[in-house]
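Reviewers of the previous submission asked for a worked example of the structure-prediction workflow described in the proposal, so we include one complete record here. The input consisted solely of the amino acid sequence. No template or homolog information was supplied to the procedure at any stage.
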Amino acid sequence: MHDSERTAWILLMSETEAFARKRKVRAAHRGSVTRIIGMVSEGLESGDATDLVRLGKHKLALSGKLDVLTTQ
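From that input alone, the workflow returned the following structure tokens.
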């Protein structure tokens, strides 16, 4: 994995975590974001791009759920 890809993942996860905090998302969902960020960090360290793609999909799904929760 290239440094630019690693940087992109780190930024993506940071933005998700910041979004959850800013919108005061319920603690359970904030915990999910934190777990995903942790798993992505582990993937970055091991260089396993397959896991990062899978986790990215989970992150996108969670992001959609966060949008729904905060607009209700």
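The two ends are 39 Å apart (CA to CA). We consider this example representative of the routine output the project will generate in years two and three.
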